[in-house]
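TA notes, week 10

Several of you asked for a full example with nothing omitted. So below is the full record: structure tokens for the whole chain, then the designed sequence directly under it. When grading your own attempts, check the secondary structure regions first.
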């Protein structure tokens, strides 16, 4: 890679087979060797994050400084338990899919899934990607998105800007991970840097969540349980 060290090295997915103390020891060796400055985890639950850092503290190892999990207006599960863990343990969240895999842009709120879009491709792919497509694009997510589009319009911004700004509106979030296929999409996400959502807008977003609770995830979780 032609670099002296990695600023942040994150475990992509928890390993249910390898003991957590072995994982933390291996990561600590990278830190002690100067190859990595900080370590983090991804797609982890509250127990896993707490257990990992408890082991690190007890053994005097480098602890996880970040967690990269799915977090958006369509997926608020992080707020259930992990948000409190992050605050108490001083761990920063790096949300991925802040616009729900593109769903919160509103482009899927039409009779047919747009050609050349992610979930048009996933719909004809392997079982895992088809399950992911159903997780992100379903009756609940589209109904929620329609309401968020109205809120964004009233607030004078694009749905992408609203969704990205919302994901940054928490004290445990260090930075939001965005993705774009076009320059226009990138500009809408970057516009969130200059946006502070009003209390009224935040309340309207909360109201949508209360009306359509956890609109994504069921199909994906069922698929994982059958692997």
């Amino acid at each position: 890679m032609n670099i002296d060290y990695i600023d942040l090295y994150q475990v992509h997915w928890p390993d249910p087979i390898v003991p957590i103390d072995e994982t933390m020891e291996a990561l600590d060796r990278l830190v002690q060797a100067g190859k990595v400055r900080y370590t983090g985890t991804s797609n982890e639950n509250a127990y896993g994050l707490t257990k990992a850092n408890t082991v690190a503290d007890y053994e005097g190892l480098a602890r996880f400084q970040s967690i990269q999990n799915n977090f958006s207006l369509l997926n608020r599960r992080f707020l259930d338990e992990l948000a409190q863990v992050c605050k108490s343990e001083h761990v920063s969240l790096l949300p991925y899919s802040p616009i729900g895999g593109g769903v919160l842009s509103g482009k899927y709120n039409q009779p047919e899934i747009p050609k050349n879009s992610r979930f048009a491709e996933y719909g004809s792919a392997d079982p895992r990607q088809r399950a992911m497509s159903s997780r992100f694009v379903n009756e609940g997510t589209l109904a929620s998105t329609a309401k968020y589009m109205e809120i964004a319009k009233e607030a004078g911004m694009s749905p992408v800007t609203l969704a990205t700004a919302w994901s940054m509106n928490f004290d445990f979030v260090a930075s939001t991970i965005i993705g774009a296929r076009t320059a226009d999409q990138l500009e809408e996400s970057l516009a969130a840097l200059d946006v502070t959502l009003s209390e009224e807008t935040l309340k309207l977003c909360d109201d949508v969540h209360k009306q359509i609770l956890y609109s994504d995830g069921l199909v994906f979780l069922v698929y994982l349980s059958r692997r």
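The longest strand covers residues 36-42. Use that as a sanity check on your answer.
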